C-alpha cells in the first residue's frame, strides 16, 4: 500500500488538465453490453475503478484492449452474465451491468453490493424499476437472479433521483418493447452524457437533464465511438486546492456549467474565478470566508465535493455549517481532519466547522475516495508534514493526483507504505 507525504505551505500555480470523468466512463463502458461489436472510448481515465469494470466485463466474455487514449471493448462474445460479489463489493458501480445484461440477454446474476463506507446504498429502486419493466428478480444467497423474456416499457416513478438507478433503467429501457417514462430521474451531467451516447447508438431518448426521461425502446443498437466528458469532481477538487493554498491555478478542459453550485460557493467564500479561452482561473486574494452548504442531487451542491469543501472551511474566517443530505455516513474524514487541528462538531448529518488560523501536519488515514482527497487538500495547507495513508482509496477516482499537484508546485510525494 502506498502513502502520500506532503510538506504544506506552497501556493499552487500554473496549469493543469482535467482527466476524463470516472462517473461518466463507468456507465458508458457498461452501455457497450447493449450492442454486439467493437465500441471505442477516448479520454477514459486510468483509475482503479476502470480496471475493476474492465475485469468484470472481461469475465463476462468481452474482449478489451487499451491503447494510447483508446479503450476498446468488443462485446460480441459475451456469454456469461454474472457480476460476482468480490467485484461488486469492491466497486458498487458494477451493478450497472444489470440493466444492459437484462435488456440484451434477458438474464443477469448480480451480487447485491452490500454497504460501503459512506452509507447503506441499497439498490431497491433499480430493482423496482426493472420489475416494473417485467423482469423477474429473486434474491438468492446475496445475489440477484434476474430474468426477462423481453423487457417492456413502463411508467416508473423513482422515490428519489438515484444516479445509478436512472442509468440502469435508461439503459434497460433503450432495448425494451414500447416506451418507458422515468419520473423523478436524476439529471447529473453524467446522465446527460450517457443519454447522448445511447442516442449515438440509435436509442430514442428525450428529456435528459430534466427529471423526466422518455425512452422509446428500439429492437437493437449500434456501437459507440465516444469521448468521455471531463471529470467535474476532479476539477472541483483542483479548484479547492488552489483556494486552500492561496494560489493562482488555471484548470484546463473542465466544463464550468457542470459546477455552478460549487463555483458559486467558492466565490461566496472569497475565491476569484475567471474564465479564459479553454481554462478556468482560480485565485484566492484574501482569507477564505465561512459559507454554509447543503449537499443535494444535481444541480444542488454535489455530495462528492462535500469533504473537499469542508477541508477549505477548516481554515475559513468564521463558522460554516455543512449538511450532508445524500448519504447517511459521509463524515468519515472529520476525525482525521481533527487530528490536523480542525475544529469540527458533528450533529447528525450536519457538521459545524469553526475556522482555525492553521492546520498542523500529522499522519492521517483515508477511509473513502473523497475523504482521501480532502485529507490531501488539508496537507497542502497544513504546517510541516502530513502523511495520508491507505491512498488506494484515492486511486479509485483520481488519475495521478499527486503528480498533478507537484506540477503545480506542491511539495508532495507518493512512497510505498
Ligand atoms: C453515484 O452513486 C456516484 N457514483 C457517486 O459518486 C455519487 O456520490 C452519487 O451518485 C450521488 O451523486 C457513480 O456514478 C459511479 P445514488 P450512486 O443512487 O448511483 C440512495 C464518488 O465519490 N438510493 O444517486 O450509488 C442511496 O443510498 C461516488 O465518485 C436508494 O435508497 O448514487 C443514496 O443515499 C460516491 N435506493 C442516495 O440514494 C436505490 O435504489 C443517492 O444514491 C438507489 C439509491
Question: How is the largest sheet built, in terms of strand order?
Answer: 22-23-1-24
How does the major sheet shape up?
A: 4 strands, mixed
Mean pLDDT: 97
CATH superfamily of the largest domain: Enolpyruvate transferase domain
User: Quick one: overall form?
Assistant: elongated
Helical fraction: 25-40%
Number of helices: 14
CATH level-3 fold name of the largest domain: UDP-n-acetylglucosamine1-carboxyvinyl-transferase, Chain
Broad CATH class of the largest domain = Alpha Beta
N→C terminal distance:
5 Å
Structural category is alpha/beta
Q: How many structural domains can be distinguished in the coordinates?
A: 2
Query: What small-molecule ligands were found?
Result: ligand EPZ
Over all CA atoms, what is the radius of gyration?
21 Å
Instruction: Let me know the number of strands.
Output: 24
- The amount of beta strand, in percent, is 25-35%
Low-confidence stretches: none
Secondary-structure map:
Blueprint: E1 2-7, E2 13-17, H1 22-31, E3 38-42, H2 48-59, E4 63-67, E5 70-74, E6 82-83, H3 85-90, H4 98-105, E7 107-111, H5 124-132, E8 136-140, E9 143-147, E10 155-157, H6 163-174, E11 179-183, H7 189-200, E12 204-206, E13 212-216, E14 225-227, H8 232-245, E15 248-252, H9 260-268, E16 272-276, E17 279-283, E18 293-294, H10 306-313, E19 319-323, H11 333-339, E20 343-347, E21 350-354, E22 363-365, H12 369-381, E23 385-389, H13 392-395, H14 401-407, E24 411-416
Parallel strand pairs: 2-15, 3-14, 6-7, 10-11, 18-19, 22-23
Antiparallel strand pairs: 1-23, 1-24, 3-5, 4-5, 7-9, 8-9, 11-13, 12-13, 15-17, 16-17, 19-21, 20-21
The structure holds ligand EPZ.
Ligand EPZ binds at residues 23, 26, 92-93, 119-126, 160, 162-165, 303-304, 326-327, 369-370, 397.
Amino acid at each position: 500500500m502506498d502513502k502520500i507525504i506532503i510538506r504544506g505551505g506552497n501556493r499552487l500555480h500554473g496549469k493543469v488538465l482535467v482527466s476524463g470523468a470516472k462517473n461518466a466512463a463507468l456507465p458508458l463502458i457498461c452501455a457497450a453490453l447493449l450492442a454486439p461489436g467493437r465500441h471505442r472510448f477516448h479520454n477514459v481515465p486510468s483509475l482503479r475503478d476502470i480496471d475493476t469494470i474492465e475485469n468484470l466485463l472481461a469475465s463476462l466474455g468481452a474482449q478489451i484492449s487499451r491503447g494510447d487514449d483508446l479503450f476498446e471493448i468488443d462485446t460480441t462474445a459475451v456469454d456469461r452474465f454474472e457480476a460476482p460479489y468480490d467485484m461488486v463489493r469492491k466497486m458498487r458501480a458494477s451493478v450497472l451491468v444489470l440493466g444492459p445484461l437484462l435488456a440484451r440477454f434477458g438474464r443477469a446474476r448480480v451480487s447485491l453490493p452490500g454497504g460501503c463506507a459512506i452509507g447503506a446504498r441499497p439498490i431497491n429502486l433499480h430493482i423496482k424499476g426493472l420489475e416494473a419493466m417485467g423482469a423477474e428478480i429473486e434474491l438468492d444467497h446475496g445475489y440477484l437472479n434476474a430474468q426477462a423474456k423481453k423487457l417492456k416499457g413502463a411508467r416508473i416513478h423513482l422515490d428519489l433521483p438515484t444516479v445509478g438507478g436512472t442509468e440502469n433503467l435508461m439503459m434497460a429501457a433503450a432495448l425494451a418493447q414500447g416506451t418507458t417514462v422515468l419520473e423523478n430521474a436524476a439529471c447529473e451531467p453524467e446522465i446527460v452524457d450517457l443519454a447522448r451516447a445511447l442516442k449515438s447508438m440509435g436509442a430514442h431518448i428525450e428529456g435528459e437533464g430534466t427529471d423526466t426521461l422518455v425512452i422509446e425502446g428500439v429492437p437493437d443498437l449500434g456501437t459507440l465511438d465516444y469521448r468521455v466528458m471531463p471529470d467535474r469532481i476532479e476539477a472541483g477538487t483542483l479548484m479547492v486546492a488552489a483556494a486552500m493554498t492561496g494560489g493562482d491555478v488555471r484548470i484546463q478542459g473542465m466544463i464550468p456549467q457542470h459546477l455552478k453550485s460549487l463555483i458559486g460557493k467558492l466565490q461566496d467564500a472569497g475565491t476569484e474565478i475567471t474564465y479564459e479561452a479553454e481554462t478556468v482561473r482560480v485565485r484566492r486574494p484574501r482569507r477564505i470566508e465561512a459559507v454554509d452548504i447543503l449537499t443535494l442531487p444535481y444541480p444542488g451542491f454535489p455530495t462528492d465535493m462535500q469533504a473537499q469543501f469542508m477541508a477549505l472551511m477548516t481554515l475559513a474566517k468564521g463558522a460554516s455549517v455543512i449538511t450532508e443530505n445524500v448519504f447517511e455516513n459521509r463524515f468519515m474524514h472529520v476525525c482525521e481532519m481533527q487530528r490536523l487541528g480542525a475544529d469540527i462538531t458533528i450533529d447528525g448529518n450536519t457538521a459545524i466547522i469553526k475556522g482555525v488560523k492553521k492546520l498542523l501536519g500529522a499522519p492521517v488515514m483515508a477511509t473513502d475516495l473523497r475523504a482521501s482527497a480532502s485529507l490531501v487538500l488539508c496537507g497542502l495547507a497544513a504546517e510541516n508534514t502530513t502523511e495520508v495513508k491507505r491512498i488506494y482509496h484515492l486511486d479509485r477516482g483520481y488519475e495521478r493526483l499527486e503528480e498533478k499537484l507537484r506540477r503545480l508546485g506542491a511539495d508532495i510525494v507518493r512512497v510505498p507504505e
